[in-house]
């Protein structure tokens, strides 16, 4: 029989992740122990004071009572003050040092992990789900670390200390109090185990709600344009209702543990009072001892209730931990360390390349292609033919299933992804600009560029004029949602960015699709300058933009069905001819 691997348990694994903050946890445990000691001393002192008053009632002198009471009350005050101080310091340590650094450390791990994961994961996983795991789930884990060392360590130590103190006072009353402990723990563990599946469902629904909210705000303009506000609200309400039901069920099931324990402890407290009174009257137990045991019984109940709550929360934590570890345990991209020479010529070869996004459906099959250095290659074809996929394979966003892709004779699978991507400049149909100055956005691909180089790139991309008409020129801040720029202006800036980066290979994916006809002509001229001497791959739907390409590849169903120049392909009157004439058919 295979022995279970304890490290596979999410809670144990989570505890092992807390090793870097172990010294602080030990300090917190020490503060907990000091708080428990001071809390155990208090009932002893209070019981002695009650006994003094009882003795005085039976005929003691007022002088001895006064001196004893003053001293006892002073010590009692110091004990409660010490307990409050140690508890405060522990809470401050846990909240401001342990939990904060622990949770931030996990979030950093997730961020670094995502960088090493295949692009496929980010493409196929909703952003809202990833954010929900990094925020809500990780916060739950941080709270668990707080509980495990503040409740469990303190609670267990407090139970042991109080049990010892009670047995030293009176073993009969102590036995009665301690006998209820196994029953309480058994009840809490049974109920807690039922709640696990409900917490799993709650976290899944929470992730879906975050996805929906992120999607609604991202596509806000589209929603307004199509008057889909009511539909979006209904969709949100539906998911939110499902989350509300899952949350109520999970919290109700988990929260029933603590009331049940509190009920059993309250019943025990009543019985202890009755039995303590009986022993004091009939068995000669002193009133002070009886009062001390009663106070200890109340203190004994408190950590049991906290432990019960902790047991109930463990399943919530397990659900969150499983979602976090699901990311951390994902298979990473294989790392290659190969490098290219500084002088990259730009020869690209595809040899017997097969690739599919879905293993059940082959997209690119037996692709063979040779692109000479400096060639301008256009890739055309209907939607889904595999045009963008070729770019993804070139940039190693995805790795091929079989075959070989070579860059200057080197198999790119042997080169690091950073090395391959550093040789490509890209201008995509979907522009991306970040909040910052125009100059910073243009220099994104070359952070050390001078202002003169930035302005020269913008002049070549025909965007220098409109930049200078803006309030702060090149220092104008682009808003986070880029609403202070038109679609054409944003595309011009991304083209300027590629011009400035000046890479030996270039990828243009519908780079002129978001500009007007006049701007397209200017951009085409800039592209001619940009592509001069560079190996360029141009993905185009408007075939008028690629008529001067050195080579046109016509793709259909992942295969090159035709290739040649514009004139050669038209003369064949084949698939390309149909595509071209269909765009100009009246």
Features:
586 residues; alpha/beta; ABC transporter transmembrane region fold; Rossmann fold; 6-stranded mixed β-sheet; 4-stranded antiparallel β-sheet; elongated; disordered N terminus
Overview in brief:
This protein is an alpha/beta fold and 586 residues long. It has helices at 10-17, 22-57, 62-116, 119-124, 127-169, 171-218, 220-225, 229-255, 257-282, 287-328, 387-394, 417-421, 438-442, 451-460, 464-468, 487-501, 517-531, 566-572, 575-583; strands at residues 348-355, 364-371, 376-380, 402-407, 410-411, 424-427, 436-437, 477-478, 505-509, 535-539, 551-556, 559-564.
Protein architecture, described:
The chain contains 19 helices and 12 strands. The protein is of the alpha/beta class and 586 residues long. It folds into 2 domains: 6-328, Up-down Bundle (ABC transporter transmembrane region fold); 348-583, Rossmann fold (3-Layer(aba) Sandwich), CATH 3.40.50.300. The strands form 3 sheets. The chain has a 6-stranded mixed sheet, with helices on both faces. It has a 4-stranded antiparallel sheet with strand order 2-1-4-5, with helices on one face. A hairpin with a 2-residue loop joins β11 (551-556) and β12 (559-564). The radius of gyration is 36 Å and the shape is elongated. The termini are far apart. The model is unreliable at 1-6 (pLDDT under 50).
